Fold this protein.
Amino acid sequence: MVVGNWKMYGNLAWNKTLLESLVEGLRDYRNADYAVCVPTPYLFQAQAVLAGSNIAWGGQNMHQFEGGAFTGSVAPHMLVDFGCSYVIIGHSERRELCYESDPVVAAKFEVAVKVGIKPIFCLGETREEYEAGITEEVVARQLDAVLSRVGPDGLAEGVLAYEPVWAIGTGRGASPAQAQAVHAFIRERIAEQDFEVASHIKILHGGSVRVANAAQLLSMPDIDGALVGNASLVADQFIAICRAAN
Ligand SMILES: O=C(CO)COP(=O)(O)O
């Protein structure tokens, strides 16, 4: 599975070119599930261009409540209205810059499943945490917050994305072996609760996934796909990463 996270980039004209190029470039490919998570105002455009194609679309965030006086927020059902299959939950940029806590991320995960949207649940350690050698502790805490709220069967309704924060946007991602070790740790921790769920759940990798390193990362046994930032903004690069998935 390969998912593009456009973050806060794009405009109507530019999106149109990118989306149409993706449809064209991936038309004959069925090797993986493909999706793009676009800024909320452009969901209608993603829906219009991608409907009927083999590329799904989704949001990058949503509120955990179904409605209310939350100026500037987007309710889960609003993503449903625009045909979203996915929503990114707990991205490190939202955890860090918007102070989203583990309990909030867990609540969002639960609500997304409830309204029928697959959450792409992000977890990963910061550079300080990595350097302090507490990666597993941090990732376990983030995972457990969701697991304890929805249980293994609930978790199975979503997709996981391990994104070491120090690898995001830096061009210096984790090595395949480094990434594999944490992916395996995550899978083992889920297996402690439910072996079946652990063996079937998709764990994507994110953080400077590029054309040059995608195939190697995706060949690791516990890496089931990629969550791509920068390279998802360039049609040829995103298409190449999608084609590298198997
Ligand atoms: O944050 C990311 C995807 O969610 C990764 O971004 P980059 O691919 O730009 O490092």
Summary: Strands lie at 2-5, 34-37, 55-59, 86-89, 118-123, 159-162, 203-206, 225-228. The mean pLDDT is 97.
